[in-house]
């Protein structure tokens, strides 16, 4: 026997071999494999394919038999404010401006790091439970959310939010820029946590500060994100203050580029859509939040048809009131049809693309959102024995239209299982319940309600 014969038949090593009834790969061909397996090593997918074939060739350290389930890439939340779980259900049924100015901002200004930590951990628990493995955040004292995500094993892009200066958080722009630089340095060696520059919006941050912050993002070579064109009311405010609509404010300052991720883009016209497409800027659609605050319905299919990369986000838990990407995926498809008067608008595959590959690009992390050899092993499993997922004709259809998120029975990031069959492996959920009750008392006191 020659050495080469031995090499050809020796089992291949891997850390983990996962078996499932089906794998929605979200690869370039959008293949859905049945009776499939995924081999994982060093946090990356080694190979995806027929399970019997992988089983014959690999000798894994561990096996995860998910027969009766389907795997899909971990969902990517393109826009959220994680610690706002603290304000879930605190102020409902209000339009955007009233909601922000009268109810949210006065309480937020008093939040301390301990409370933010509780909110961030609650948010992480909900993301893990509903199959989300990475998120783009925007809030204050972002190192707290970074530490929560890292401890839970989730991927996060942190956005230290700012308005005009002085503010309750930053006396000057330079103090804010320094905080962002420190944040980036603090997590430089953490493979799960990155940073983005995050001005709140074109109606709350003056154009010259938007521009200065963009230069900071360029110098640090990180994404730049902001809320934009969220509602017709915002457009009126921008027209009154600057004589320009929100997209024009950014365009005239040279702030539209592939580095940029814009949240909402509900009130955008045909010319603005063409300009967004030409610039390579990314857009995140937040259907539940837009509906709840009565902000309007984004022309998502028009944006996609024009060539804009449109991801999907939940927004914060106080304007949604969930961080469940499955609900927003379903809503994106349903609302898209009504917005365009066309039942074929925003189809199931499009909605799943938005929640995976497209959102990954919005995070500046394009290798996420797929199950493919050489890419991060971030994946989730849905239990196909749930009555609402039977029978199966089309796995993608079930993920978008039939699943609620509660069928998620496994969540994995970089090959590490964070949640399996009801058990959180990186979080103490009982402890979190007590902390949440304590935080609710504080919110009531702080709001004077
Ligand atoms: Zn938001």
UniProtKB/TrEMBL annotation:
GO terms for molecular function: 5'-methylthioadenosine deaminase activity; metal ion binding; S-adenosylhomocysteine deaminase activity. Binds 1 zinc ion per subunit. Its cofactor is Zn(2+). It catalyses: S-adenosyl-L-homocysteine + H2O + H(+) = S-inosyl-L-homocysteine + NH4(+); S-methyl-5'-thioadenosine + H2O + H(+) = S-methyl-5'-thioinosine + NH4(+). Keywords: Hydrolase, Metal-binding, Zinc. Its EC number is 3.5.4.28, 3.5.4.31. Gene3D superfamilies: Metal-dependent hydrolases, Urease, subunit C, domain 1. Signal peptide: none annotated. Substrate binds at residues 108, 200, 230, 315. Residues 70-417 form the Amidohydrolase-related domain. Pfam families: Amidohydro_1. Zn(2+) binds at residues 79, 81, 227, 315. HAMAP family: MTA_SAH_deamin. Belongs to the metallo-dependent hydrolases superfamily. MTA/SAH deaminase family. Catalyzes the deamination of 5-methylthioadenosine and S-adenosyl-L-homocysteine into 5-methylthioinosine and S-inosyl-L-homocysteine, respectively. Is also able to deaminate adenosine. This is 5-methylthioadenosine/S-adenosylhomocysteine deaminase.
């Amino acid at each position: 026997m020659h050495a080469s014969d031995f090499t050809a038949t020796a089992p291949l090593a891997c850390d983990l071999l996962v078996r499932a009834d089906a794998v929605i790969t979200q690869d370039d061909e959008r293949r859905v494999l049945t009776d499939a397996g995924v081999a994982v090593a060093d946090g990356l997918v080694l190979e995806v394919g027929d399970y019997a074939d992988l089983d014959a060739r690999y000798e894994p350290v561990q096996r995860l038999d998910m027969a009766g389930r389907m795997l899909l890439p971990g969902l990517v939340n393109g826009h959220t404010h994680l610690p706002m779980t603290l304000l879930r259900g605190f102020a409902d049924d209000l339009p955007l401006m009233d909601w922000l100015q009268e109810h949210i901002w006065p309480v937020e200004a008093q939040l301390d790091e301990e409370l933010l930590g509780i909110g961030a951990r609650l948010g992480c628990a909900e993301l893990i439970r509903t199959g989300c493995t990475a998120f783009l955040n925007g809030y204050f004292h972002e190192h707290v959310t970074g530490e929560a995500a890292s401890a839970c094993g989730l991927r996060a892009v942190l956005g230290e939010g700012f308005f005009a200066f002085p503010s309750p958080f930053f006396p000057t722009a330079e103090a804010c820029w320094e905080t962002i630089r420190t944040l980036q340095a603090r997590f430089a060696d953490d493979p799960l946590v990155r940073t983005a520059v995050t001005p709140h919006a074109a109606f709350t941050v003056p154009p010259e500060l938007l521009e200065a912050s963009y230069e900071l993002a360029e110098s640090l070579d990180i994404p730049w994100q902001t809320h934009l064109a969220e509602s017709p009311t915002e457009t009126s405010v921008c027209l009154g203050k600057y004589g320009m609509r929100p997209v024009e404010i950014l365009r005239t300052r040279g702030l539209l580029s592939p580095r940029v991720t814009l949240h909402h883009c509900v009130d955008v016209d045909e010319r603005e859509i063409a300009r967004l497409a030409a610039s390579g800027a990314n857009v995140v659609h937040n259907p539940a939040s837009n509906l709840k605050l009565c902000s309007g319905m984004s022309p998502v299919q028009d944006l996609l048809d024009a060539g804009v990369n449109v991801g999907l986000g939940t927004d914060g838990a106080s304007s949604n009131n969930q961080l469940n990407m499955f609900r927003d995926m379903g809503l994106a498809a349903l609302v898209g049809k009504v917005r365009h008067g066309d039942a074929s608008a925003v189809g199931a595959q499009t909605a799943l693309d938005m929640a995976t590959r497209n959102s990954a690009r919005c995070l500046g992390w394009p290798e996420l959102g797929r199950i493919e050899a050489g890419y991060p092993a971030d994946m989730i499993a849905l239990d196909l024995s749930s009555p609402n997922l039977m029978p199966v004709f089309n796995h993608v259809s079930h993920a978008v239209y039939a699943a609620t998120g509660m069928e998620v029975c496994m969540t994995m990031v970089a090959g590490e299982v964070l949640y399996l069959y009801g058990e959180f492996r990186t979080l103490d959920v009982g402890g979190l319940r007590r902390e949440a009750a304590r935080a609710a008392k504080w919110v009531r006191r702080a709001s004077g309600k």
